[in-house]
Write a structure and sequence with these properties.
It comes from Mediterraneibacter gnavus (strain CC55_001C). InterPro entries: LUD_dom, NagB/RpiA_transferase-like, UCP020269. This is LUD domain-containing protein. This protein is an alpha/beta fold. The chain has one domain: 3-Layer(aba) Sandwich (Rossmann fold). Strands 1-10-7-4-2-3 form a 6-stranded parallel β-sheet, with helices on both faces. A 4-stranded mixed β-sheet has the order 8-5-6-9, with helices on both faces. A hairpin with a 4-residue loop joins strand 5 and strand 6. The two termini are about 25 Å apart.
Length: about 210
C-alpha cells in the first residue's frame, strides 16, 4: 500500500464512522470495482433505480452494471420527448434506489450538494426509499465550511462548463454568487443527519471520481 492509500484508509475509516454517527450506512473500499460490487450487493434484483447527473457513478462503472442487470431503470437520458423526460424525473422520487455522489463531504460526515434544477438534491432529501452515493476520496474536506467552498468553487463551475451554461463561473472558473438564468447553484442541500436509519448509503472509494 502506498503512502497516499495509507492516509486515505485511516481518513476514510474516520469519515465512515462519522457518517454512521449521523444515521447513514457507510463503507470504505479501495477501488471503483469494489465500489460497484458493494453497490450491487446493496441493491436487490428487481429494484427500481434512477439517478441525477452523476459522473462518479458513471466513472465507477456502476451505470453499465445496472443497465446490464435485472433492474427497472428510470433513465431520463433515454426519453424521446421533453414530456417523457420530465415524467421520468418525477418517477425517480418513487424509486427503490436513487444513485449519485456528493459535491463534498466533511471529515465529520456532513454532505454538501448544490443543484441547478434541484431534482437531485430533492431526491437526496426526501422521496426515494434509498439514496446510494459513490464518493471518491477527492471530495473529502476538513469542515462543513470547506465542503460548501468546494461545492461552490470547484464542483459547480466544472459542472456548469460540462452543461455549457452561460454563467460567470464558466468564464471565471469560480463562484460569483450570480442570479443568472441557468445558475447551477439554485439550491444548496446540507445533509447532517438521516431521520430514516440507513436510507442514505455512502460508499467511499480510494480513487478520484467526479468533480
Amino acid at each position: 500500500m502506498d503512502v497516499r492509500s495509507m492516509r486515505n484508509a485511516v481518513l476514510g475509516a474516520r469519515v465512515v464512522n462519522a457518517l454512521k454517527s449521523r444515521n447513514m450506512d457507510a463503507y470504505y473500499v479501495e477501488t471503483k470495482e469494489e465500489a460497484v460490487a458493494k453497490a450491487l450487493e446493496l441493491m436487490p434484483k428487481g429494484s427500481t433505480i434512477s439517478w441525477g447527473g452523476t459522473m462518479s457513478v458513471a466513472e465507477a462503472g456502476l451505470m453499465d452494471a445496472i443497465r446490464n442487470g435485472d433492474y427497472t431503470l428510470y433513465d431520463r437520458d433515454q426519453a424521446e420527448t421533453a414530456k417523457e423526460r420530465e415524467e421520468m424525473m418525477h418517477q425517480a422520487f418513487f424509486a427503490d434506489f436513487f444513485l449519485g455522489s456528493t459535491n463534498a463531504v466533511s471529515e465529520d460526515g456532513v454532505l454538501v450538494n448544490i443543484d441547478g434544477v434541484a431534482n437531485r438534491v430533492a431526491a437526496y432529501a426526501y422521496g426515494p426509499k434509498n439514496v446510494l452515493l459513490i464518493v471518491g476520496m477527492n471530495k473529502v474536506v476538513k469542515t462543513q465550511e470547506d465542503a460548501l467552498h468546494r461545492a461552490r468553487n470547484e464542483a459547480a463551475p466544472i459542472n456548469a462548463q460540462r452543461f455549457q451554461k452561460e454563467t460567470p463561473c464558466v468564464s471565471g472558473g469560480t463562484c460569483f454568487d450570480c442570479k443568472k438564468q441557468g445558475c447551477i447553484c439554485s439550491q444548496i442541500l446540507i445533509t447532517r443527519y438521516s431521520q430514516i436509519p440507513g436510507r442514505i448509503k455512502v460508499i467511499l472509494v480510494n480513487e478520484s471520481l467526479g468533480f
